[in-house]
Please model this.
Amino acid sequence: METATYIRRRGQLETYFDRTAVEAWSRLTSDAPVSRIRATVRAGRDRMRATLLSWLPADLTGRRLLDAGCGTGMLSVEAARRGAQVTAIDISPTLVGLAGERLPHDIGAGHIDFRVGDMLSPDLGRFDHVVSMDSLIHYKAEDIVAALSGLAKRTGGSIVFTFAPRTPALTVMHAVGKLFPRGDRAPAIEPVGEATLRRLFAADPVLRRWRVGRTERIVSGFYTSQAMELVPA
Model:
């Protein structure tokens, strides 16, 4: 379900990732030299991607996987090498273009269908697994739950996703970010308490039939994100 606040924030993110931050994200998601700060973010994202992949079956042969917010496609490639039929979607045409350019010649028995669009579109069909790495961290708790609820209706296996945990450091960063001129701001992350998410899951008519599995927080310098697994109860 796409709420009004989800749609508004999605538009801001599309502008940011497809225009404002293209060069920065191109370098961050490659092996090009980056600043010390961005190096900590790159290391954190590498650890997070490895964590989410470790929560998926080692053999994904024949299984449909949605990479919701695929960026430049690094997770999609690893899933395809396990045999997955991956639908990799992102709202940024530029990032999806980079993903296609960087696609290795050999991805094993799997397949990747790169698309530009909304990760919540029901037209994408049904999936065995959904992965959403750092693509929900810019949304408020209610929008995260609405998004996951919609995805759960079309997922048979598991949903693994990340959110920005509510910590003192992230709360300060969120507040400081609001001091910058509006035109210079990146779309703010939205710190969310794990207890709040669990409470909202229990109140949602779809997600109350799912349960929280594994969860792990990764902190690497300027990168903080928490992974969570949802599986049918």
